[in-house]
Write a structure and sequence with these properties.
The chain is mainly alpha-helical. The protein has 2 domains: 15-45; 49-279, MetI-like (MetI-like fold, Orthogonal Bundle). It has 14 helices and no strands. The chain has helices at 16-45, 50-57, 60-93, 99-106, 114-125, 132-137, 146-157, 159-172, 175-182, 187-198, 200-216, 219-225, 235-244, 248-279. Helix 1 (16-45) packs across helix 14 and helix 7 (146-157) crosses helix 11 (200-216). The longest helix has 34 residues, at 60-93. The relative contact order is 0.13. The chain crosses the membrane at residues 20-43, 63-89, 101-124, 144-162, 202-228, 248-272. It is found in: Cell membrane.
Length: 290
């Protein structure tokens, strides 16, 4: 005789004890790995009061590092945004031989250590590198200067906008673009009036992630910049220099700037995802039984 089917079988997490254990582990991990370090940064930065905090941020070398970091972001984010749009449009809206290879190459920075990328730039543009003799002969300085910082930052942040755009543009297909072309729209008009409005939230999210990574990049920049105090030190490198010099308050004060960028990125991510759901560009998963 067949045994009756239990339609009320407990799922993982339905039990009170299991749910309590899972929530405790998640909250404990979040608190120890995320919230506690951020709290320590701000607590140490303001430990001696607001005037000391502001004085630490006003150090000439720290201000130069902030300016250099902002300059790098102002150059890299627009360039990588344009690259991400162009590459995503090419990959998702056209069929051509080598399309998958192009996508794999564009995502290469995610699989390469930033330090390895920095060393690779040294072998290409350094004094003993591939183009080193040519650059020296024409008095062009790339390594251990601002151009090297920009090149390294461009490399490590290249895929961020692309990875946000490709899945959405693939899901949307080509119908709207083909309809616009059939009505006489030019390629630029199709991009500006059809494609970009449909992916604007993903584009903003990718640009926000790109900006956060540019401002926080350490590995590749530390190799190619030379970490020259007051000249080629970005904010992450300046924090390391201050900490090595036993200027802990100044180091934590500078770290609050990067922590603020990270928090701003999280808030921007939440607002963008909320706007996407409101516009129906992200469909909430259906619950079982509905």
């Amino acid at each position: 005789m067949a045994r009756p089917v239990n339609r009320h079988r407990l799922r993982v997490g339905d039990g009170a004890v299991t749910r309590a254990v899972i929530l405790t582990l998640v909250l404990a991990t979040t608190g120890l790995a995320l919230i506690a370090p951020l709290a320590v940064i701000f607590a140490e930065a303001f430990a001696r009061g607001v005037p000391t905090y502001l004085e630490a941020l006003a150090r000439p070398d720290t201000l130069h590092a902030v300016g250099l970091t902002l300059l790098t972001a102002l150059i890299c984010v627009p360039l990588n945004t344009a690259f991400g749009i162009a590459a995503a449009w090419a990959v998702t809206k056209f069929s051509f031989r080598g399309r998958n290879l192009l996508l794999a190459v564009a995502e290469l920075p995610f699989s390469i250590s930033p330090i390895v990328a920095g060393v690779a730039y040294l072998f290409v543009y350094g004094a003993q590198g591939l183009f080193g003799p040519f650059l020296q002969a024409h008095d062009i300085k790339i390594m251990f200067a601002v151009p090297a910082i920009i090149l390294a930052s461009l490399f490590v942040t290249a895929p961020f906008v692309l990875r946000e755009l490709v899945p959405l543009m693939m899901a949307q297909g080509r119908d709207e673009e083909e309809a616009a072309v059939s009505l006489g729209a030019s390629g630029f008009d199709v991009l500006r009036l059809v494609t970009l409005p449909n992916v604007k939230f993903a584009l903003l999210y990718g640009a926000a992630l790109c900006n956060a990574r540019v401002m926080g990049e350490f590995g590749a920049v530390s190799i190619v910049s030379g970490n020259i105090r007051g000249q080629t030190s970005t904010l992450p490198l300046q924090i390391e220099l201050l900490y090595q010099d036993s200027h802990a308050v100044a180091a934590f004060a500078a770290a609050t700037v990067l922590a603020g960028v990270a928090l701003f990125t999280l808030v921007a991510k939440y607002l963008i995802e909320r706007a996407e759901r409101a516009r129906g560009e992200i469909v909430a998963p259906r619950r079982p039984g509905h």
